[in-house]
Amino acid sequence: MSAEAANPGAHSRRRGRPRIDLRRLGRAALLGPTTRDRLPDAIGHVAEAHRAHHPEADLAILHRAYVLAESSHRGQFRKSGEAYITHPLAVTLILAELGAETTTLTASLLHDTVEDTEVTLDQVRTEFGAEVCYLVDGVTKLEKVDYGAAAEPETFRKMLVATGNDVRVMSIKLADRLHNMRTLGVMRPEKQVRIANVTRDVLIPLAERLGVQALKTELEDLVFAILHPEEYERTRALIADNASAWDALDTIAEKFRAVLRDARIAAEVHIRPRHFVSVHRSRLKRGELRGTDFGRLLVLVGEDADCYGVLGELHTCFTPVISEFKDFIAAPKFNLYQSLHTAVAGPDGAVAEVLIRTHQMHKVAEAGVIALGNPYVPPEGAAGPEPADGERADPTRPGWLSRLLDWQQSTPDPDTFWTSLRAELAQDREITVFRADGGALGLPAGASCVDAAYAQYGEEAHACIGARVNGRLATLSTVLSDGDTVHLLLAQDVQDTASGPSPDWLDHARTPAARIAITTWLAAHPEGTNVAAAAPRRPAPLTADRRAAANAVVDLPDATVRLAGCCTPVPPDSVTGFAVRGGTVTVHREECPAVARMKSLDREPIPVRWGDAAECRVTLIAESFGRPRLLADLTEAIAVEGAAIVSATVEPPSQQRVRHTYTLQLPDAAGLPALMRAMRDVPGVYDVSRAQHPAATA
User: Fold this and answer.
1) Residue 509 per-residue DSSP state
2) Mind giving me the DSSP string for 60-73?
3) What does the alpha-carbon distance between residue 380 and residue 276 come to, in Å, rounded to a whole number?
4) pLDDT digits (tens, 9 = 90+) for 282-312
5) What pLDDT is attached to residue 549?
6) In terms of C-beta density within 10 A (0-12 exposed, 13-18 middle, 19 or more buried), how is residue 531 classed?
7) How would you class 595 by CB atoms within 10 Å of its CB: exposed for 0-12, middle for 13-18, buried for 19 or more?
8) CB–CB of 340/369 below 8 Å?
9) Cβ contacts of 632 within 8 Å, gap of 6 or more
10) Which residues are catalytic, by number?
11) Which residues, at least 6 apart from 439, have a Cβ–Cβ distance to it below 8 Å?
12) What distance in Å separates the CA atoms of residue 676 and residue 664, rounded to the nearest whole number?
């Protein structure tokens, strides 16, 4: 397959499309003879593209880098037969067109010199500075002679670690892979497939996470053509057969322009053809495609507020498809992407998808982190203190990259790292959850409390015994949602216990960091945790003499008063009573659900007051985490407060949680708050409450 045959960008483009056209890039360095007298024209293309984004850029360093690269690669040829210098030039053109700053372009021109020529890193550092040297070193492959089969995963590990300190390393690698994929047709079919698989599993997800959509979409199409040639040809034919589809989009675009002119909103309306993979996915999802399914309308405005103005006009003048509306301006994606997405239906029922964004949003949507220029230079006029740890504050390091850099340190084995990396990058959406201290954690969608524990505490999460999600107790298997607040509870928070991860945690761990840490701990502790010792046994109910609740008084002669077991009222609770069979009056707390149920049955409440007797009986429920001696400590706390245990039950432990129910006789109802506080202070107990459960009868 030739590079041209594998290029899905051959279908026609419509006028006025602002999308950065990468498909013509690389050709500037390939046109005409490859003799040395033609090569300076290619660096001229780089300079022209660079000045379009950075008019004041100093081009002298680019010329010096080009001279070194050309002289170093002189005599080297690519498998296609072209002079090797055409490759670094094409890669640099890609980055220049996307708006990369001068340092990135300098490193891009030199990115293969250390790997493939006699140039050394020391020479690069001496001639071009430490930053350029760092970028070149970051994208330089490790030698197979030194690493064998581990060379590829270890090269990616090295590259990702370098990206953690400077995101421009990955920008160069993505452009490098794009040009290699464009010219992959000269390789053997099996090698094409291997490179395409790595591109699909690693490079495309990285391009998505860094927001470089212009590179991501073309890489997707190139991979699609290699791995699924039949589906690719079917999609190509489908696009060719629907060349007239643009007429429907042109008609809608003209209507949009008229509506926005009447509303006096300065806006550009363009047609964006869908790329091959997008058309393929739409066909699988929708079946037969209509003309408007082959592209989307892009509306570009000057200010954020204008985006919402355009949205209002379009929804007023056309029929909106409400289910298609998404606001990525108010809630940007984790890869910097911002835009309003909507869809509207025309009079004939044709639905057109619409993207609304500012010019700056569009630049970032296409180029992602590359559009940020040099993220390590503060904006002009902004002066801030240097970080205390000496590291640069990197505004481009998102949560997923920090997680990746953390867990890779725990995976010295290249195969484990390679497998975990692909699994991490397979997560296509990220959520943000908030810690109890106000900090935030970035996690992949579907992550559980187990993942949050290891993201926050690392290996200390082995001692995690529970969590509160949005203030409520939750099991560690609970799947978190975007915006949840998570308070993770460790064993040392309650008492020194023989705690550790359970094999069941692996069923709920989605992040490589959690899975690697759990697997490593379990391998080091084949005997597991002493779960039996950590969980209290269920004791037989303890009983004591039941004493009457004579301090609840009703104004009925010869009436027997009984305190309801469903809510166990005690002085000074507000109470009410209801007569039941046998002349007995059952006393409930006013807020007891049984009271509302009785009133709904038209049962007449009976006034109840508390008498002089201070003694009372109450049922308390203690929620706790299992640990040795917990039951003994609780009963001791109860005894110290002077309460007698009438009965006690302990439910079997579940998810390391234990529920205790105590019916207690207190010498004075006024001591109830102190008793409950004393029980809560017992290590391992996280809540003590009055019984409040439905009663079978009143």
Assistant:
1) -
2) HHHHHHHHHHHHHH
3) 41
4) 888 777 787 788 889 999 999 999 999 999 9
5) 46
6) middle
7) buried
8) no
9) none
10) 115-116
11) none
12) 11
